[in-house]
Amino acid sequence: MPRRGDSRAPKQGDRKAAPLGAHVSIAGGTSKAPPRAKAIGATAMQIFTKMASRWAERVCEEEECTTFLTELGDTAVRETNAHDSYLINLASPDPVLRQRSIDSFVGELQRCAALKLKFLVSHPGNFMDERSSGLERNAEAIGIALERAPGETMLLMEMTAGAGTVLGSSFEEMAKLIEMIPLPYRKRVGVCVDTAHIFAAGYDIVNDYDGVWARFDDVIGRSRLRLMHLNDSKVPLGSRKDRHELIGEGAIGEGAFRSIMNDPRLASVGKVIETPKLDDAETTDRRMLERLRGYVD
What we know:
Blueprint: E1 20-23, H1 33-39, E2 44-47, H2 62-72, E3 79-83, H3 95-114, E4 119-122, H4 131-148, E5 154-158, H5 171-180, H6 183-186, E6 189-194, H7 195-200, H8 209-219, E7 225-230, E8 232-233, E9 244-245, H9 254-261, E10 270-273, H10 281-294
Helix pairs in contact: 3-4, 4-5
């Protein structure tokens, strides 16, 4: 019996052409990001739309957006997304922090719409008090934000490693969170799977690759998977810590990434690396992308 969300797999020849890229810097302005993506041979690109570690908000003016899109048009990038600020906590029980988070989140969605980015990736929040209450607050806040910021940008909730009071480290909890989002806005919500996060959360993609994806299909549904973050892990299976490592050089190792890059079910899913940049971001990112492409049979 077919699993929920299954669809006809793309042809094998599409694998090398599937969107693949990296998180690139916007230092100097958002228009500087596309040339950096081009320099590493990326066909997918993730950016921040503002400083991720500060609350200061900003608006993307028309001239900025025009320049960004012009620069983007001079690259092979065909799938773009932003990652939201690390300060946002839509599940917070603190009413002041939660409102500030909602307002900032709306700003993130509005900048994505202005820049015509396809996805906004966001971590579920930290519940701080009770897990069930945190889920309710998170889902409600997502609905509020999507109502205030209409547009084509799709929100992707990212699977987490599960440290402390963070939400979204199990497929079951992520599915529950999505189901709690008000129905009119649920169609704008998907999932981003980070390989380092799910491995740290206890999903053994090294020794039970097919089993992990079967569970994802049954619980969340493959149709919800719209993006992957490809990161190796500095920490072992089930450690609950978010520590990224270079592809093939961590606890996950080469085998699982070979499986991902050759999996026809994932051929059309965009993939972005967030691995360490070392001394030279461009050189390191290009080497990681070439390594991943080299895994394709």
